[in-house]
Write a structure and sequence with these properties.
Elements lengths: L9 H10 L11 E2 L7 E4 L14 E7 L2 E4 L1 H4 L8 E2 L5 E4 L9 E10 L15 E5 L9 E2 L9 E6 L18 E8 L12 E4 L16 E6 L2 E11 L6 E5 L4 H9 L15 E3 L4 E6 L8 E6 L14 E14 L5 E14 L5 E9 H6 L5 E3 L9 E5 L4 E15 L2 E9 L15 E3 L5 E9 L12 E3 L5 E2 L5 E5 L7 E2 L3 E2 L13
Parallel strand pairs: 9-14, 17-22, 22-27
Antiparallel strand pairs: 1-11, 2-3, 2-6, 3-4, 4-8, 5-7, 6-7, 7-8, 10-11, 10-13, 11-12, 12-15, 13-14, 14-15, 16-17, 17-18, 18-21, 19-20, 20-21, 23-24, 23-26, 24-25, 24-28, 25-30, 26-27, 27-30, 28-29, 31-32
Length: about 500
């Protein structure tokens, strides 16, 4: 069962994703800028929205009237993590000192990322991206520096990064541009050993550096009477240390090829992820039973270990408790087709099975009117050999039920009739996939729910589930993934999306 911090809100997930785990804050050692830089801008996507009132997520630099430069990981916040494609709700504010007013606002209609974190070797040294603007801006572009700046070269760094570490405090998100003058350090100064293609920028003690939410912002060098961009903020170097900037001079050919139209990469194929619900550390799906009516409140299915707060105790269940969180239901590209709120935890257990059901504030009819995908909940158990599709929020995994395990133990809990997947590259779940629906071949029936896999071969501990045979033999195999049966849930639900644990045929674990 995966460790989780579910339902603290998408805010915390986006904080980590958009800003990176950078211990330094803001543009350290600098001051508020007194004049705007016409080429500098703030990247402000409405989906996923950064966790700050002004909507700033990253810095950008205008390279041509319809092109801006940023970091690849900033453009990687599309739902499926695609390298190239069409975003939804992305915009930039160019040429203003303030993220909330002034300058020019332009919509982004395409993104091109040089590298992704799934690439061999990751994106270090290649953490750059281009965003195409729907309409040209009037801002004067900045040039790319002609060569990698030598150690000791003076640089100016700019950004709207956080001024303190509390991501829940609006005062930590400055709207006024800050800048600082510093130098390029030898790569050895950065504790992360600055991978090839990264610049080590800032003071040796980190008192002058970039930080959280400065990603994509520039390291500027003098080019005659003006500025040229030599690097963009990529990530942390370490505590009390300089910052890593991707050396964009190494990628001038890639950048020029796209801007000129001579070497434009094709869009990635976006796999259909319709119906998945992102729950910050887990996934979910909206399900209905055969007896559900169109005006019944819709139900959200996920794992019992994904509920907020205290987990259900071994041998017990949580029943009819308050809940309040947003549930975005994805369209086929992963963007929200409809959004509902979970208002009640109907049921959750980690004994016998690992499931949770939340009642939403929208009915099935209301969700259908919005075009949201609703899955059917099966009444037939999964059997060995059954094909399964794991419906995660950014992709689909093709799995096969290798066996139905009589007993599965993990961290003090026992699950019965668990589904073991056949191992292979097409079905290798990872942390964060808990709660993903397991679909029948029809693509609309939920027959199970993914909940765990064995990390390192350890027996029966958290993140290391073990199988227990009829004779008590314990088997623990690194890499094995497991899901839970859901066929028994239908017998416990009645019209109106209500739970009745005393109903004939209901075998779910009761209250303590």
């Amino acid at each position: 069962m995966r460790s989780r911090s579910l339902l603290l809100g998408v805010v915390l997930a986006l904080t980590a994703a958009l800003v990176g785990a950078v211990p330094a804050q803001a543009i350290l050692g600098g001051a508020e800028s007194t004049r705007a830089y016409s080429f500098l801008g703030s990247f402000q996507p409405s989906f996923p929205r950064p966790p700050r009132p002004d909507g700033h997520g990253c810095g950008v630099e205008v390279l041509a009237p319809q092109w801006v430069l940023t970091a690849s990981h900033c453009a990687g916040k599309n739902p499926t993590g695609a390298r190239t494609g069409v975003p939804r709700g992305w915009q930039v504010r160019i040429g203003s000192l303030d993220t909330t007013s002034g300058g020019e606002v332009a919509d982004v209609d395409h993104y091109y990322r040089l590298a992704t974190s799934s690439d061999e070797g990751g994106f270090w040294g290649k953490d750059v991206a281009l965003l195409h603007l729907r309409k040209p801006v009037r801002a004067k572009p900045v040039r790319i520096a002609s060569a990698t700046p030598a150690d000791g070269t003076p640089v100016r760094i700019l950004g709207w990064g956080m001024s303190c570490e509390d991501s829940t405090n609006p005062a930590c998100f400055p709207t006024k541009l800050r800048e600082a003058d510093t130098v390029v350090q030898p790569n050895s100064v950065c504790p992360a050993a600055a991978p090839v293609g990264e610049l080590c920028v800032g003071s040796r003690d980190g008192s002058v550096a970039a930080g959280n939410m400065d990603s994509g912002g520039p390291a500027l060098v003098r080019d005659g009477a003006g500025w040229a961009v030599a690097g963009v903020v990529s990530g942390p170097s370490g505590d009390r240390s300089p910052t890593l900037y991707t050396d964009v001079t190494r990628h001038a050919g890639w950048i020029t090829g796209i801007i000129s139209g001579t070497a434009v990469p094709p869009d990635d194929e976006i796999l259909d992820v319709e119906g998945a619900v992102e729950l910050n550390g887990c996934a979910g799906s909206v399900v209905r039973t055969p007896q559900a009516g169109p005006h019944d409140p819709a139900l959200l299915l996920t794992n019992g270990h994904c509920v907020p707060g205290q987990r259900p105790a071994p041998g017990a269940a949580l029943v009819d408790q308050p809940a309040d969180f947003e549930a975005p239901i994805a369209d086929h590209q992963g963007y929200p087709q409809a959004t509902a709120r979970a208002k009640r935890l109907l049921y959750a257990t980690m004994t016998g099975t690992d499931v949770a059901l939340f009642r939403l504030d929208k009915t099935y009819a209301q969700l259908r009117a919005k075009g949201a995908k609703v899955f059917r909940l099966t009444t037939t158990p999964v059997r060995a050999g059954d094909p399964l599709t794991m419906a995660y929020t950014s992709r689909r995994l093709n799995c096969v039920a290798e066996a139905v395990v009589p007993h599965l133990r993990e961290g003090g809990y026992q699950l019965d009739g668990s589904i073991r997947y056949a191992t292979g590259e097409n079905c290798a779940p990872w942390h964060g996939m808990s709660g993903s629906a397991l679909l029948a071949p029809d693509g609309t029936t939920v027959v199970g729910i993914h909940n765990t896999h064995n990390d390192d071969g350890g027996p029966c501990t958290d993140d290391n589930p073990c199988e227990v045979g009829p004779d008590g033999t314990v088997t623990s195999v690194r890499g094995r993934g497991y899901g839970q049966q859901v066929a028994g849930i239908v017998a416990c639900l009645v019209k109106g999306s209500k739970l009745d644990l005393a109903r004939p045929g209901c075998a779910l674990t009761g209250t303590a």
